[in-house]
Amino acid sequence: MKVYALVGQSGSGKSHRAPWIAREKNIEYIIDDGLLIKGSNIVCGRSAKKEKTKIASVKTAVFVNDDHAFEVSHALKTMKAESVLILGTSDGMVKKIAERLGFAGIDETIYISDIASPEEIQQALKTRRNQGKHVIPVPTMELKKDFSGIYLDPLNVFKKNQNGYMESAGEKSVVRPAFSYLGKFTISEYAIYQLIEHTSLSFPAVAKISRFRVTSIADGINVEVDYVLNYGYPIPQLMSMLRRAITYEIESLTSLNVKKLILTAKSVVV
Q1: Given 115, 130, 145, which residue is the final one in a domain?
Q2: Phi-psi region at 149: left, alpha or beta (left = phi > 0; alpha = psi -120 to 50)
Q3: Number of folded domains in the chain?
Q4: Are residues 199 and 124 located together in one domain of the fold?
Q5: pTM listed for this prediction
Q6: Using one digit for the tens of pLDDT, what is the confidence trace for 122-178?
Q7: Are both 10 and 95 inside the same structural domain?
Q8: For residue 233, what pLDDT is reported?
Q9: Beta bridge partners of 155
Q10: What are phi and psi of 80, to 5 degrees?
């Protein structure tokens, strides 16, 4: 199966343009915010737009739940899918989705800036920021059974064909999920420090953390941690285990992408 990825920041118009890319490249399936979509139908999955909080939404979008991931991966295997397009806000996110669904990797990545003008992207971001509207690339009737009580609005999309005439690009749906009413949320540096401290001190070799620093970047965080270690433990193996444990805890509990994790053994106590 050939795996494509469409990457762009949240609200930049990925879901709006995904069906066009699928048609142009003959991609059978789209994975968008926890849903597996074929044509104008939802095959299976669970929409992140139904979640009540932003964190829960992100976890659903990256298939943190094993049953959710199995449902979608099993459906693709059963239907012998030959191609799929994964939508995500960063290279790290689409890679994580691919890993959760058991794919070998991403074969081709398309960025929203490759297919939309800066003006179009800014307009889409403005709509998301001011109105909290999200697009799901399936007709409204397809969503009614699962989105009862949530704002739904059909969106008929037209696009110029090769002859210059306008033709229907299909119906999409505009939703305003519950979490879009709740404003912005942040995860403090101290909360991340506590996660790292809790994870690190579960290893007998770690005496304490002597220095901690976290830096926010566009698609995740960079973390630096200095340790005081207890004597008698092999440091390279310890650092490798700490790296895996800390990355897993931060990404699974906060849904932040750990882009860089620098661990340093500063001193040893007897």
Answers
A1: 130
A2: left
A3: 2
A4: no
A5: 0.63
A6: 887 887 676 666 666 665 555 555 554 444 454 554 455 556 555 544 555 666 665
A7: yes
A8: 96
A9: 172
A10: 50, 50
Q: What is the pLDDT of residue 10?
A: 83
Distance CA 168, CA 74 (A): 32
Same domain assignment for residues 119 and 43: yes
CA neighbours closer than 13 Å in the CB half-sphere of residue 42 = 23
- The verdict on residue 256 lying in a domain is yes
| Helix, strand, coil share of the chain (percent; to 5) | 40, 35, 30
Residue 211 belongs to a domain: yes
Q: What is the pLDDT of residues 186-211, one digit of tens each?
A: 788 899 999 999 999 999 999 999 99
Number of Cβ within 10 Å of residue 230's Cβ equals 16
3-state SS assignment for residue 42: strand
In a domain, 15, yes or no: yes
Say if residues 119 and 81 touch (Cβ distance below 8 Å).
no
Same domain for 123 and 205, yes or no, is no
Place of tokens 């494509």: 4
Instruction: Report the SS3 class of residue 55.
Output: helix
Which residue range(s) make up the domain with 242? 189-269
Q: Are 119 and 37 in the same domain?
A: yes
- Please check whether residue 29 is in contact with residue 76, taking contact to mean a CB–CB distance below 8 angstroms: yes
**What's the CATH code of the domain at 258?**
3.30.70.1350
* Cα–Cα distance, 255 to 58 (Å, whole number): 7
3-state secondary structure 119-138: HHHHHHHHHHHHHCCEEECC
**235 vs 225, 227, 231, 268, CA distance in Å?**
14, 11, 10, 10
CB atoms < 10 A from the CB of 83, how many? Answer: 15
Residue 114 falls within a domain, yes or no? yes
